[in-house]
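Async update (no meeting this week)

Hi team, since we skipped the sync, here's where things stand on the single-chain job. The sequence we agreed to prioritize is pasted below, unchanged from the tracker. I ran it this morning and attached the output directly underneath so nobody has to dig for it. Comments welcome in thread, and please keep replies under the output.
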Amino acid sequence: MTASDIIRDLQLLPHPEGGYYRETYRSAHTLTTTEGHTRSVSTAIYYLLENEDKSHFHRIKSDELWFFHQGQALEIILLTPGQPTRLTLGPDFAAGELPQAVVPAGVWFAAQLKRPGYGLVSCTVAPGFDFADFELAERAALLREFPQAAEVVERFTRL
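Output:
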């Protein structure tokens, strides 16, 4: 299978942060957030990165769980105090790759493939994803907040 086959067969669309996605689940059950917004209890998507695609730095207001399916290992970079934290999703558990990882609510994060090819994952968000809770990073603001991470901030942000 190629990335094009998967994009076609799973009916994936371009994602604003980079890569391709399609929502596959949105809970009919809702909750009210501490900010007073109504959100689905949980949502899920397929997400695919291909070759040089990047998921640019962004954050959401909910926890996000990532699940590896197939293809190349995918690195998730989280901006935390100190140096960036890196998690690798992939099939080689002996090499430290993980089948799943959690990105905590409110943390800036980005992703890329470790090697050329494609990586197919799923992401589950709880409380459920809403684009109103999505914030794409601005380079200058991230550089002020995380000057020690300038190299990754510049690589994973748009001007």
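Quick observations from my side:
The first strand starts at residue 13 and ends at 14.
The domain at 3-156 is CATH 2.60.120.10 (Jelly Rolls).
Reply here if anything looks off.
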